[in-house]
Amino acid sequence: MQNFNQSQIIETIEMIKIHHLDIRTTTLSLSLRDCCSSDVKKTASKIYDKILKYASNFRMLADEIENEYSIPIVNKRIALTPISLIGESCDNPDYVYLAKTIDKAGDEVGVDFIGGFSALVDKGFTKGDLKFFEQIPEALSLTNKLCSSVNLGTSKAGVNMDAVLKTADVIKQTAILTKDKDSIGAAKFVCFCNAVTDNPFMAGAFCGVNEAECALNVGVSGPGVVSSAIEGLDKSADFKEVSNLIKKMAFKITVAGELIGKRLADKLNIPFGVVDLSLAPTPNRGDSVAEIFKAMGLEMAGAHGTTMALAMLNDAVKKGGIMASSYVGGLSGAFIPVSEDLGMIEASKAGSLTIDKLEAMTSVCSVGLDMIAIPGDTPNSTIAGMIADEMAIGMINKKTTAVRVIPVIGKTSGQSANFGGLLGVAPIMKVNPYSSEIFVKRGGRVPAPLHSLNN
Known about the structure:
The chain has 455 residues and is of the alpha/beta class. The protein has two domains: 27-193, Anaerobic Ribonucleotide-triphosphate Reductase Large Chain (Alpha-Beta Barrel); 220-441, Anaerobic Ribonucleotide-triphosphate Reductase Large Chain (Alpha-Beta Barrel), CATH 3.20.70.20. Helix content is 43%, strand content 18%. It has 15 helices and 14 strands. It has helices at 6-17, 40-55, 58-69, 83-87, 95-109, 127-141, 161-177, 223-231, 239-268, 289-296, 306-322, 342-350, 355-361, 380-397, 437-440; strands at 22-30, 73-80, 113-120, 146-154, 158-160, 189-193, 214-221, 272-276, 328-329, 369-375, 401-408, 416-420, 424-427, 445-446. The strands form two sheets. Strands 1, 2, 3, 4, 5, 6, 7, 8, 9, 10, 11 and 14 form a twelve-stranded mixed beta sheet that branches. Helix 14 links the parallel strand 10 (369-375) and strand 11. Helix 2 (40-55) packs parallel to helix 5 (95-109), helix 3 (58-69) packs across helix 9 and helix 8 (223-231) runs antiparallel to helix 9 (239-268). The longest helix is centred in the middle third of the chain and has 30 residues, at 239-268.
C-alpha cells in the first residue's frame, strides 16, 4: 500500500474541492450483436432487456463509489452497438421505435445519456443505413437521453461526401424539430472522421463491433487542476517546465480515474475497459481549457499562439496519463467545446475565437468543431462544407475529428442559445457567407490519401 504524506492528501482534497477534479463520465459499453432479429418489436425487447440486465444497478453503484472516495462522478452513461447495424436485421426497420425503446430503458436505469444511435458509412450506405439517416431527426426530437453519431470517413477509406451532405440535412432537420428548445436536438448529434470504438464521451460514444460483450470506460477531467498548477509557476518558466508540470498533473488525474473505474467495474462484475485521458471542461468557472491557455500566458483563447498552446497541452496530457494507466483509449487529449467551456464562451463573445480559429485548433486537439451554435438560417450546403473541412483534417492527419454544430432556428449571430446543464450556453457564431453548394453537391467519395497505402 502506498504511503501518503499530509501534503499529498491536502493536494488531492484541493484538486477535488477547489479545482473541480471529477470523473466526467463512467460509460457502460454494451454489445447488442445478440439482439438482432427479423421482427423490430422483438429486437427492441431484446435491447431493452439487455440494458436492464447490465445497468439496473449502474447508477446506484456509481453513487456508492462516489461517496466512498468523495470524487464526483458527473455523468453515468451507456454506449451501444451502432443501432443502424442492429436495426437492419429487421424485415421492416423502424429506427424511431428502437430509439424510443432505448430512451425508455435509459430512463428506467437512471443514466444521463445513452449513445450508439449510430451508423458507420465511410465507404457507402446499405439500405438500412439510408433508412436510418431518414429517421435520425425524428428519433432525436422524440427522445431525451438518446445521442446519435455517424462516421463519414477514415484515413484508409477517404470521405463519403454523399453522407456528408445527408448529414448536413439531418442536422438542420433535427434543429427544426427541436426549435422550441433552442434546437437542442442537434446538440445530441455528432459526425466523425476516424471514429473510435471505445469513446466514453457523448454524443459520440458507441460500442464498436470489435468490442467485448461489455466493459466500463471512464473519462476523467481536470482542466482546473492543470490551470491552477501552471498559474503557480514563475512567469519565466520555459515550455519544458510547463510541459513537465502538465504531465505530472495528468498522471495524478489518470490514477484517480483508473482507481474509480476499476472499483466500479468490480462492483458491476464486468471488465474494466479504458481511461480516456481527455481534459473535458464544464461551464463552471475554474473548470476551463481556455483558462489553461491564459495560465500559459495568452491574454485570451483564440489569440495567436493558441494552437501551439493546445498542441503542447494535448501532447503532455497523453504522455503523463499513459504512464498512469494500463489501458488508455477513447479520444484522449483536450476538448474544446465552445458552449461547455466558460473561457471559450467569453472568448467567442469577445471576438477572439472564431470558427476559422477553432478549425485550426482541431488539427491538434482531441476532436473537432464541438458544441458550436450557428445562425438558424445557415444553408445546409454551408454546414456540409464545415463538415467536409473537418473530415479532411482527420483523414490527412490520421486522427479523429468531429463536428457538432447547432443551427439555432430563429436566432442569428450575436444572440445565444441555452442548452442547460453540461451543454451550457452557446454564443451564436458567424459563418462564412460565401457558398459551398456546387462543391459539396459533387458527391461521391473523396479518395483516401497516399499514406493509406501503408500495408
